[in-house]
Amino acid sequence: MEYRTIKIEHIGGLLVLTLNRPDKMNALNTAMRAEITHLLQHLPEDLRALVITGAGDAFCSGQDLGDARNAHDIDIERVLRDEYMPMLTALMALEIPVLAAVNGAAAGAGANLALACDVVIAAQSAFFSQAFSRIGLMPDLGGSWVMPRKVGMARAMGAALFAERIPAPQAAQWGMIYEAVGDDSFDAHWRGRAAQLAAGPSCAFRAIKQALRASASNDLAAQLDLEAHLQGELGKSRDFLEGISAFLDKRAPNFEGR
């Protein structure tokens, strides 16, 4: 597929996906959703980390409302089932770490696209908004699932009902995102974090994602059993042997992802 609404930067084991409709604040239209989904379903096999960010001043302003100028002609349920759900499912199915580098406004589906990633790093001036109720809708793209789990029911409900901006520092304080970083150092910071993930122990990262996600539905006994199984598998990996050797040799490890 030829990508027209996104840009791809492939650096070793790291791929940076940039939403690239800056004149529309990177709003999600049919073409962009199809391109993101296609890319997520056809990532290089040797990829070790993925970053999603936005071109220009915004991360993603959500659904392109230009598509809904005549609201009666839009089948929202079909769009969600046929276009948004495959995109989110492909994103959540990835075993590699996914970092959202939120450079500006993340509103509506744009906010929930970011929050579906494993780690969210935002510029100090960025903000998040569950803006749906402003146009008579409710959070989608997983927002009604992820927000209560990240910030608790009270804050999730308030964010959805009032549709107010949540500045990046407040989002970090709430536990909605991992960190808010000064605008001047934002680009260098997230690139450093992404490089760290791409050079890290991929097997361990895969197990971390599996275990943490399973914890939402497991009881303690099931989680302890899962930990024992995953840790046992990691103990047989080359990355574990390298990590131990590097620790004993007092040097930086050279993980291979095996």
Write down how many β-strands occur, each being a DSSP E stretch of 2 or more residues. 10
CATH-defined fold name of the largest domain: 2-enoyl-CoA Hydratase, Chain A, domain 1
Based on Cα principal axes, name the global outline. globular
Q: Main beta sheet: strand number and arrangement?
A: 6 strands, mixed
Summarize the amount of helix as a percent range.
40-55%
* Strand neighbour order, sheet with most strands: 1-2-3-5-7-10
Which CATH class of the largest domain is shown?
Alpha Beta
Pfam families: ECH_1
InterPro entries: ClpP/crotonase-like_dom_sf, Enoyl-CoA_hyd/isom_CS, Enoyl-CoA_hydra/iso, Enoyl-CoA_hydra_C
Organism: Tritonibacter aquimaris
Protein name: 2-(1,2-epoxy-1,2-dihydrophenyl)acetyl-CoA isomerase
Written account of the structure:
The protein has helices at about 30-40, 75-90, 110-115, 145-150, 155-160, 170-175, 185-200, 200-215, 220-235, 240-250, and strands at about 5-10, 15-20, 50-55, 60, 100, 105, 120-125, 125-130, 165, 180. The chain is globular, with a radius of gyration of 19 Å. Helix content is about 45%, strand content about 15%. It contains ten helices and ten strands. Strand 1 (about 5-10) and strand 2 (about 15-20) form a beta hairpin. The strands form two sheets. A six-stranded mixed sheet has the order 1-2-3-5-7-10, sandwiched between helices. A four-stranded mixed sheet has the order 4-6-8-9. The chain folds into two domains: about 5-200, 2-enoyl-CoA Hydratase, Chain A, domain 1, CATH 3.90.226; about 200-250, Lyase 2-enoyl-coa Hydratase, Chain  A, domain 2 (Orthogonal Bundle), CATH 1.10.12. With about 260 residues, it is of the alpha/beta class.
